[in-house]
Amino acid sequence: MKVNPKPPRPQLQFEKSLRKRGYKLICGLDEAGRGAWAGPLVCAAVILKADGIVGLDDSKRLSRQKREDLFGIILHESTAVGWAFCEVEQINRNGIQTATYLGFNRAIAELAKEPDHLLIDHYSLPGTLIPQLSITFGDQISQSIAAASIVAKVIRDRKMLELSRQDSYKSYNFKRNFGYGTKDHEKLIKQLGIASQHRLKFCHEIIQDQLQANLF
């Protein structure tokens, strides 16, 4: 019987290589909520100390409780942590890619220390003068990016739980779907229509599909 090995946790190979080249404040960048149908995009920036943090992993591979535990450790043990919201209005107006770039720049600006190198999950950040490296599946490879993924995910989940308690959004079940495109969420959009926290590009497609279906 073949057993698939457990995926390795993110390491510090990129960070160590950059430190050997003289970089000291290496910042991991990642986001949460890019593919959601509702709620803000959250971007996070984390500068770890040289020895990193034990137990870091891609936020998607961690339980909610483990993310919360690591979030506290990241805030306490990192050199600097910053995050930023890109609200739905900005996403609807400018598109998700522009919102992502804006969010990354804002998260960097929130850091207590200015980074001298960026490690970014999947993307390159246009316009920045800071040296950068884009790493595919970076949140599964680099501890700095993994830390940023955890911060972004925890902050966004907390925001979605807060929204779920507001009268305008109680019926959309954000406390379970967190604004993502589940079957239940799609059903609720079709029943209730679009709320102010919904992203129009995605949700209008759902409504239009329903209207087209009703024509035949």
Secondary structure blueprint with pairings:
Layout: H1 13-20, E1 26-32, E2 41-47, H2 64-77, E3 80-86, H3 88-94, H4 96-109, E4 117-121, E5 132-135, H5 143-164, H6 174-177, H7 183-192, H8 200-215
Parallel strand pairs: 1-4, 4-5
Antiparallel strand pairs: 1-2, 2-3
Report on the architecture of this protein.
With 216 residues, this protein is of the alpha/beta class. The chain has a single domain (13-164), classed as Ribonuclease H-like superfamily/Ribonuclease H (Nucleotidyltransferase, domain 5, 2-Layer Sandwich), CATH 3.30.420. Helix content is 44%, strand content 14%. The chain has 8 helices and 5 strands. A 5-stranded mixed sheet has the order 3-2-1-4-5. The radius of gyration is 19 Å and the shape is globular. The N and C termini lie far apart (51 Å). The model is unreliable at 210-216 (pLDDT under 50).
Keywords:
216 residues, Nucleotidyltransferase, domain 5, 8 helices, globular, disordered C terminus
